[in-house]
């Protein structure tokens, strides 16, 4: 056997294509993570201004014109309203101008990301110094002392996502990548649901009662975890049912390559470049991270939209998995053949 024959036997054309696909994923991974995180800076951060009427609009205009556009300021009627909007996650911070003294108050919420609250403090300190004023910072929704840089929510969600697509990948390839017939698809969906519940509860208990890294409702986090795991898992099963083993790579592309750096974990969304800021809320890691922080630090506020995003991924993945399985019926060996074809010839599914 010649060396060329040995190469052909060692690396089949199919394997070569898969290796090229893995190389593409690797390069996309590098481009996505470095592109999103190599130069974080605040841009258009939703920011409130509470000031006497005659100075309010002038200050809003001044903050709106800062170099690089770090803030998206808007006038707020009172300090109480500013605190309410921060707690509702409508704005990320607010400046309360004192009409009597020269010390103003900056309201931040480090529970939404300590990097962002530190950036706001730095920006407003410079602005105030230019007007011979000083600023004191008040943290309206402080991150836990055991939640370094507010990263625990992100790592929790990443763990849930990893569990979701790994479990789905194992279910998909356990029978030698045989396409799922209706019964097999239903069983895999049920197993995925049970796994999701177990993973959600386990993650919430570890990060809450055991490690004390996140405050908030353990059961709220457990429910979120179950939804994250199930949505990622069913998306992976759907992609595998649609494209075969390539679907596992597509799931990695969506969840890991695109989803993780755009999730607002290491750097909150207002500090990411436009592309990642746009896609992050629509992907499971970003939606999950937002809800986890809302549960932990913001009384569960502003969670409806991201929960609907996760639900959409779960419903779409489940529906696609089951619909694709209905196109097949079981073969004599327990595998699957396309409906209308013969098990012993024609279009046997592999």
Description:
The chain is an alpha/beta fold and 350 residues long. 58% of the residues lie in helices and 9% in strands. The protein has twelve helices and seven strands. The protein has helices at 3-10, 13-37, 53-64, 79-87, 114-129, 152-173, 182-210, 218-243, 246-259, 274-279, 284-297, 304-325, and strands spanning 45-50, 71-75, 93-96, 103-108, 134-139, 328-330, 336-338. α7 (182-210) runs antiparallel to α8 (218-243). The longest helix is centred in the middle third of the chain and has 29 residues, at 182-210.
Structural class: alpha/beta
Q: In sequence order, what are the helices and strands, one letter per element? A: HHEHEHEEHEHHHHHHHEE
Main β sheet profile: 5 strands, mixed
Task: Give the overall average pLDDT.
Answer: 90
What is the strand tally?
7
Query: What share of residues are in beta strands?
Result: 5-15%
Cα radius of gyration in angstroms:
25 Å
Q: Level of helix content?
A: 55-70%
- Overall body shape: elongated
The DSSP helix count reads 12
Strand order of the largest sheet: 2-1-3-4-5
Terminal-residue CA separation:
29 Å
Low-confidence stretches: 330-350
């Amino acid at each position: 056997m010649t060396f060329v024959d040995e190469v052909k036997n060692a690396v089949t054309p199919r394997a070569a294509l898969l290796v090229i696909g893995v190389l593409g994923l690797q390069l996309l991974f590098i481009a996505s993570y470095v592109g999103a995180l190599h130069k974080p800076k605040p841009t258009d951060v939703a920011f409130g201004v509470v000031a006497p009427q005659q100075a309010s609009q002038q200050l809003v205009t001044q903050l709106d014109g800062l170099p690089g556009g770090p803030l998206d300021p808007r006038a707020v009627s009172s300090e109480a309203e500013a605190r309410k909007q921060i707690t509702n996650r409508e704005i990320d911070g607010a400046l309360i101008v004192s009409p009597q003294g020269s010390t103003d108050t900056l309201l931040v919420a480090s529970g939404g990301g300590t990097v962002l609250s530190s950036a706001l403090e730095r920006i407003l300190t410079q602005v105030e110094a230019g007007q011979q004023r000083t600023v004191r910072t008040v943290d309206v929704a402080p991150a836990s002392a055991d939640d370094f840089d507010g990263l625990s929510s992100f790592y929790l969600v990443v763990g849930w996502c990893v569990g979701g697509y790994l479990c789905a990948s194992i279910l998909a390839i356990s029978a030698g990548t045989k396409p799922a017939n209706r019964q097999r698809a239903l069983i895999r969906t049920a197993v995925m649901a049970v796994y999701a519940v177990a993973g959600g509860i386990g993650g919430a208990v570890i990060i809450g009662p055991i490690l004390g890294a996140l405050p908030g409702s353990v059961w709220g986090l457990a429910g979120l975890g179950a939804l994250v795991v199930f949505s990622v898992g069913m998306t992976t099963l759907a992609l595998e049912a649609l494209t075969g083993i390539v679907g596992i790579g597509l799931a990695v592309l969506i969840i890991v390559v695109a989803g993780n750096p755009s999730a607002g974990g290491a750097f909150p969304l207002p500090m990411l470049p436009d592309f990642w800021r746009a896609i992050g809320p629509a992907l499971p890691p970003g939606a999950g991270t937002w809800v986890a922080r809302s549960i932990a630090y913001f009384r569960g506020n502003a969670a409806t939209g991201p929960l609907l995003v996760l639900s959409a991924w779960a419903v779409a993945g489940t529906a696609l998995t089951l619909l694709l399985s209905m196109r097949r019926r079981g073969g004599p060996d327990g595998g699957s053949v396309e409906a209308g074809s013969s098990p012993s010839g024609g279009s046997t599914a592999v």
